[in-house]
Amino acid sequence: MGQDTSGIMARIKVTVERINGHCNLPHLVGDHFFVDGSRLIIPEGGFVCIWALQSMMPIFPILSVKDRLEAGHWVGKVKTFSCPDPQGLVQFRLEVVEDEE
User: Fold this and answer.
1) Which of 6, 14, 64, 99 has its CA 20 to 30 A from that of 75?
2) Of all residues in the chain, what percent are helix, strand and coil, respectively (each to 5)?
3) Which residues contact 57 (CB under 8 A, 6 or more apart)?
4) Residue 81 pLDDT more than 50?
């Protein structure tokens, strides 16, 4: 059946990798934040677009256990995530990281 995805969620770093349109916030290449369990950690002075965040949220728990998923699972191939704004097309890099801030 399915894999066990229970347990503590990994620390995930989300970084703006590229912008293929126009982000009106504006997010800039290199902007980043962390999802650490159920905490959202944003560097001082930074911000996160709530629309981009909500579109990524379903993948965070799965991404944190990707090494335990069956071979070939699509989550193992996820490296970037696109903002849902068709005008912005911001590409965020998602990576599981060790303690870092």
Assistant:
1) 99
2) 20, 25, 55
3) none
4) yes
Peptide linkage before 43 cis (omega within 30 of 0) = no
Q: Angle at the Cα of 79 (from 76 to 85), degrees rounded to 5?
A: 125
Higher per-residue confidence, 66 vs 41: 41
Cα–Cα distance for residue pair 93/28, rounded to 1 Å: 13
Q: Could you tell me if residue 87 is left (phi over 0), alpha (psi between -120 and 50 degrees) or otherwise beta?
A: alpha
Q: Where are the domains of the chain?
A: 11-96
Contact 19, 94 (CB under 8 A): no
- H/E stretch holding 56 reads helix 50-56
Residue 9 confidence (pLDDT)? 79
Evaluate if pTM is beyond 0.85. Answer: no
Question: Which tokens go with 63?
Answer: 């991404």
